């Protein structure tokens, strides 16, 4: 009789251990699923942020290109003036040598 009671106790303890183990495994699976959802959410958030930074980078690169073209344009103007003075010996005339020509006004312009 004692032996059957001991066997029943052992069986109930084994059942209890199995239930605890199943519960722990179920909790771990649930926590794992929650973490996967959280990681996917973070990935999408980070990807959206990366996309906005890449768009901003592209906009800044386009603006940089426009600024380089503008700089080259202004540099060319200064270079043309320098070459005109040094190579062609051109100069701005003084005021006494400057003549202003006015066109006669017509009846349509009045």
TrEMBL record:
Stretches that traverse the bilayer: 20-41
InterPro entries hit by this protein: Cell_div_FtsL
Localization (cell): Cell inner membrane; Cell membrane
Keyword annotations: Cell cycle, Cell division, Cell inner membrane, Cell membrane, Membrane, Transmembrane, Transmembrane helix
Example of a GO biological process term: cell division
Membrane-protein topology: Single-pass type II membrane protein
Keyword Cell division attributed: yes
Any single Pfam family the record assigns to this protein: FtsL
Keyword check for Membrane: yes
Primary residence: membrane
NCBIfam families: ftsL_broad (TIGR02209)
Protein family (similarity comment): Belongs to the FtsL family.
Quaternary state and interactors: Part of a complex composed of FtsB, FtsL and FtsQ.
Physiological role: Essential cell division protein. May link together the upstream cell division proteins, which are predominantly cytoplasmic, with the downstream cell division proteins, which are predominantly periplasmic.
Protein name per UniProt: Cell division protein FtsL
Gene encoding the protein: ftsL
């Amino acid at each position: 009789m004692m032996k059957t009671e001991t066997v029943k106790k052992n069986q109930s303890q084994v059942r209890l251990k199995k239930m605890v183990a199943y519960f722990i495994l179920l909790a771990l699976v649930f926590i794992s699923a929650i973490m996967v959802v959280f990681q996917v959410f973070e990935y999408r958030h980070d990807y959206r942020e990366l996309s906005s930074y890449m768009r901003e980078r592209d906009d800044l690169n386009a603006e940089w290109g426009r600024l380089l073209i503008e700089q080259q344009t202004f540099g060319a103007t200064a270079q043309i003036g320098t070459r005109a003075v040094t190579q062609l010996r051109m100069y701005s005339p003084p005021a006494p040598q400057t003549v202003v020509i006015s066109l006669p006004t017509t009846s349509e312009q009045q």
